[in-house]
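Duplicate of #3305? Posting structure anyway:
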């Protein structure tokens, strides 16, 4: 099973700057025997593998969160839009657990190899990935996992207990980072870079850890009886003193993508162009939804509309970043969510310049954005008040989140343009005009995640039931969307007794512990 399989072994990776794929870096022949390697090499490749894997699960999240659908230039996917999937579909369990094995190797071996400063970041990434496992599958191997041959069929832990332990893991990670700040010799192994977040910055890793804590805690905020636990843990994060991801401090990964097939930004390479500049056939597949366009237009927020999508016909190959058609609202054609026919690629809008511009193969991919961090802070203050000890009001965090979303999307003069929306008098844009402040936060967070983190958008949609995404046009009338995934067939085959012990999984009704309604 994947929790006992190989770690990444780096053969010739003295220079950070080449995108890696596990297929050509992996030299283990026995998946249950862990070959030794240098933890700083493993950290580099593991971070790259994390964001490469994320392209897959962010895709399905983008569909089920109502950001994307498919064009009818491809055969209709009943698996995705009629929800006709089984445990043969959507297996992110195996690649994530493989990736977790890499971070566990660093945790186990960093000190012995004189690289103590790598242990804290590896613990943070372990917590990051385990939350993703829980948010897709629920109960999962945790305390008995990642032990190689000593635990070939690990037991499953309760999902709530995993969540609680992840907070402890992050506390330990922060303590380790404070005790062992990055040295010059190993700074290059940390390929997290974006905005003011520089690779090898111990302070920014701690900010990411605190923001990740906030994500884990706010996910539980609608559970009756959890307020005391949540507020206690948020106060501890505030009192730690380093803070959270601030304006401009997106947590992203960029190993130094190069213009070579298989070594470019994997999102760009899937949905954009190949190394020679030819458009990929899959660029015709994902379509921004009509619903996404409708709510942006209703909010008079065409600034982000024109960054999240190209006008129908896509990007002008001779003028990168600009649409082939005139960039007027009437030329932005969204596809109804789950529409099985009638919306071909040439007649509808493509993914936009916020993520795809011809020639920009080397953009980073994001673990967490500053916008998300600010919206989490906004919700924390709105729910629990000034007693948390945070310095700003919910409104201030909310408005910073909106401005950060404009910046991330690449809107020109983002603060100025965001301020137009923030003062529009329109509910769920303008704080003062929004009668339900939580819904305003949820809605703007949902917008900020479009194109960047579909998995998080889907998790938040399940938590909040907001915004009111229309039913899939390709699903049976009255069919509810899924609330989780099946355990994959591979896990059933290798760990059957423990999978069966979780009971019968109904992907439409067996909710995760934080999904209260």
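Output from current build:
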């Amino acid at each position: 099973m994947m929790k006992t399989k190989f770690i990444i072994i780096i053969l010739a990776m003295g220079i950070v700057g080449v995108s890696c794929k596990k297929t050509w870096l992996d030299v283990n022949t026995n998946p249950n025997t862990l070959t030794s390697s240098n933890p700083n090499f493993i950290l580099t490749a593991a971070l790259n593998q994390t964001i490469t894997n994320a392209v897959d699960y962010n895709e399905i999240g983008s569909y089920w969160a109502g950001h994307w659908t498919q064009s009818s230039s491809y055969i209709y996917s009943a698996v995705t839009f009629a929800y006709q999937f089984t445990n043969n579909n959507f297996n992110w369990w195996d690649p994530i657990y493989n990736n977790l094995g890499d971070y566990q190797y660093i945790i186990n071996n960093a000190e012995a190899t004189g690289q103590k400063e790598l242990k804290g970041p590896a613990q943070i990434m372990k917590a990051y990935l385990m939350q993703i496992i829980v948010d897709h599958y629920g109960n999962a191997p945790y305390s008995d996992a990642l032990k190689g041959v000593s635990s070939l069929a690990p037991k499953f832990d309760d999902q709530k207990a995993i969540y609680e332990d992840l907070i402890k893991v992050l506390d330990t990670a922060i303590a380790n980072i404070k005790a062992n700040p990055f040295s010059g010799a190993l700074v290059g192994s940390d390929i997290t870079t974006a905005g003011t977040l520089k690779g090898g910055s111990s302070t920014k890793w701690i900010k990411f850890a605190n923001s990740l804590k906030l994500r884990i805690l706010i996910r539980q905020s609608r559970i009756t009886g959890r307020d005391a636990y949540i507020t206690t843990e948020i106060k501890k994060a505030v009192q730690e003193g380093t803070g959270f991801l601030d304006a401009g401090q997106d947590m992203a990964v960029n190993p130094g993508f190069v213009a070579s097939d298989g070594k470019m930004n994997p999102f760009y390479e899937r949905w954009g162009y190949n190394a020679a500049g030819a458009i990929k056939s899959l660029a015709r597949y994902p379509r921004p939804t009509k619903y996404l366009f409708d709510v942006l237009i209703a909010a008079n927020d065409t600034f982000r509309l024109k960054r999240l999508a190209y006008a129908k016909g896509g990007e002008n190959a001779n003028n990168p970043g600009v649409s082939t058609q005139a960039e007027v609202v009437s030329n932005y054609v969204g596809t109804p969510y789950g529409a099985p026919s009638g919306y071909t690629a040439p007649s509808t809008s493509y993914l936009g310049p916020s993520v795809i511009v011809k020639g920009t193969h080397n953009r980073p991919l994001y673990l967490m954005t500053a916008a998300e961090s600010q919206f989490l802070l906004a919700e924390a203050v709105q729910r629990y008040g000034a007693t948390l000890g945070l310095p700003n009001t919910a409104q201030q965090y909310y408005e910073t989140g909106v401005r950060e979303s404009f910046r991330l999307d690449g809107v020109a003069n983002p603060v100025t343009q965001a301020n137009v929306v923030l003062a529009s008098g329109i509910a769920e844009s303008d704080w003062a005009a929004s009668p339900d402040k939580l819904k305003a936060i949820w809605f703007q967070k949902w917008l900020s995640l479009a194109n960047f983190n579909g998995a998080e958008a889907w998790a938040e949609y399940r938590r909040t039931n907001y915004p009111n995404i229309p039913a899939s046009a390709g699903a049976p009338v009255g069919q509810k969307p899924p609330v989780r995934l099946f355990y994959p067939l591979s896990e059933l085959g290798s760990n059957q007794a423990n999978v069966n012990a979780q009971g019968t999984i109904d992907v439409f009704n067996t909710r995760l512990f934080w999904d209260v309604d």
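Confirmed duplicate; merging threads. Confidence is low (pLDDT under 50) at residues 1-34. The CA atoms of residues 170 and 209 lie 6 Å apart.
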